[in-house]
Design goal:
Layout lengths: L1 H15 L2 H22 L8 E5 L2 H7 L6 E4 L3 H6 L3 E6 L2 E7 L6 H11 L7 E7 L4 H31 L2 H6 L5 H29 L8 H24 L6 H16 L15 H6 L1 H15 L5 H21 L7
Parallel strand pairs: 1-2, 1-3, 4-5
Antiparallel strand pairs: 3-4
Helix pairs in contact: 1-8, 2-6, 2-8, 6-8, 6-9, 6-10, 6-12, 8-9, 9-10, 9-12, 9-13, 12-13
Amino acid sequence: MRNALITAWAIIKDNLSSKTTLFFVIFFPLFLTLIFALGFGAAAEPHVVVVVNGNNSLAGYLNHTELFTGVVGSNEREALIHNYIYVEVNGSKVSIFYPQEDNYLVPSLEAIIQDYLSGTNTVSFNILSQQGFTYYDYVISGMIGVISLSNGVFGVTGVAAGYYRDKLVDRIAASPLKSYEWVMGLIIYEIVITLISTVPILLLGLAFGFLPLISVSFVAFLAISTLMFAGLGAVIFGLSPKDKLFVAQTAANVLVFPLMFLSNAFFSLSAFPPLLKPIVAYQPLSIINDVIRDLVVYNVLPPLFDIGYIAVLTVGLVYVGGRLMRLRETD
């Protein structure tokens, strides 16, 4: 492990001395957040899910409107944590609990429910505003997961390709350094870069009123998620021919961008077609974003399934990446 740390430190000093690298570490994440998250994410309208308790057919009726996505549920706290509107129906009495920022939606929702329950003589509404989470909380926390993805995959393939192109790998291979120590050095470098890149994202979030709950658990999970994606980058580079380094970069692009946009980073799961929802919900970046939001936004413990899912993928990808990404053909 000592050799891996020494290698990581050498890679950090080498790359952070470059102004181009500093741009991509500090300013490029901000650019991505402003353009992709705050721009494209706005179209997703992630806060129009209505959780209905007491009338399952009303949830189905809401699905036929252009404003709301109706789902059946009975957990008011869980609904409000995720910035959903919660509707409880008890005969002709309807209670609507909604996040403060969604107050403009309540009159429309009330009118739709009134129309649906038109057979009832009198519908009594109880409207209650609750403290919710903002749109910026959603997309900026999702952007943190995107940074771990892009730094992990692009970082490993990019740095390794540069070292091969500049023949630096030949010099490294002449040292006693083992292949797995070389891979771990690269991965540790990417973890450090991700932590650095996250700082300007969080500072930008403060400007939009996003107050994240920073904890040791969050930092540790961010490191683990970067470790997982860096392992994926090592697998990609290890499978790519070294005389055609563009193959690794192309494969990384082909994989990263679908993972980025077919995830819950910028768009709520309800914004995707039914056929894509299971894929989006259970792909690695979405699970990572769920855990990050639980830790820094909702202040709840993440499900054990999510933690186990990422842990298994991390161990598997790092192991395979360490085996494939060799310094020497004889290793």
